[in-house]
Amino acid sequence: MPAIASDGEGPVPTLREKIGAMVVTGFRGQSIEPGSAVGGQLGAGHLSGVILFDRPGARNIASPSALATLTSELQGLAPHALIIATDQEGGAVARLGPGRGFPATTSAAQLGLIDDPAITYAAAAELAETLRSAGVNLNLAPVVDLNVNPGNPVIGAFGRSFSADPQVVIRHARAFIQAHHDRGVLCVLKHFPGHGSSTKDSHVGFVDVTDTWTETELEPYAALIAEDLVDVVMTAHVFNANLDATYPATLSRAIVSGLLRDHLGYDGVVMSDAMEMAAISQNYGFEAAVELAIDAGVDILLFTSEVRPDGTNLAGTVVDLVERRVASGAIPEERITESFVRIQRLRERL
Description:
Blueprint: H1 15-20, E1 23-25, H2 37-43, E2 49-51, H3 64-77, E3 83-86, E4 88-90, E5 93-94, H4 108-114, H5 117-134, E6 138-139, H6 166-181, E7 186-192, H7 219-226, E8 232-235, H8 253-263, E9 269-271, H9 278-281, H10 286-296, E10 301-302, H11 314-328, H12 333-347
Helix pairs in contact: 5-6, 6-7, 8-10
């Protein structure tokens, strides 16, 4: 049992609970099996939340009613408000789709072309209502990458960006976020500091935007942070030698703590893009990537599975690893507490 705070305000979280708050994972199936890895971690308070998918190997979404039952079951397992997230951008990236009984959606590219924030608000309101009804409280959207390269294989090619014009992106992202907030669903801006100019896909390998990225790609973040509309920022696994000559954004102190926090003044939760993506997993060892991301200032480490390739419990492995690093002095406990405080503020809004 956690110790009780001397001021009577409630239990003092253990170090393992604080580390567990920094982990969100995917899981297999449409229910939580007794004795499952994710169920055990949720029950122990060693997992901040889950991400839902509708794909082979991690098919969590069967129908609106089944998903509502699943999310209720998930919330009932956790001793705290649980982050339940999915990618419901609209268009090509919408995990809750018509094939499972959910409404059809409109892509960001279509909405940006129409360029009427009222229409974007209405489309986003329908997305948010779908999520709210299903028990999903965090939408990994909107994409605020600029459509600098329309042939971009991961952004432009799928119509995920509102526009190449930062002002168009700002006004439509604003409407998108407001529609979600009005329905009690939080949002994630992605992918910081900008993936729209890339010529490659960070899902499949190393991505270097040194020669294509410009500071204009920061404008949506700067504007929405200044308007206090940002719940979470997701990092991109892109390398930019002009910002950090050694590490990609997710693992870069210069980009996360320097550019995003110090320069743009953001003090909310920072979430990594999926840590299994090849841009990270093929170039950095698992342990090194986890430690570097935390050192960079990332608060929540996102994984798409609840188990590692060798079958071991992923969240448990991360908690054990970080606990050892804290004990050795490699990661200051204050750094873990800093993230925990931010995550707690986010949980209070769920």
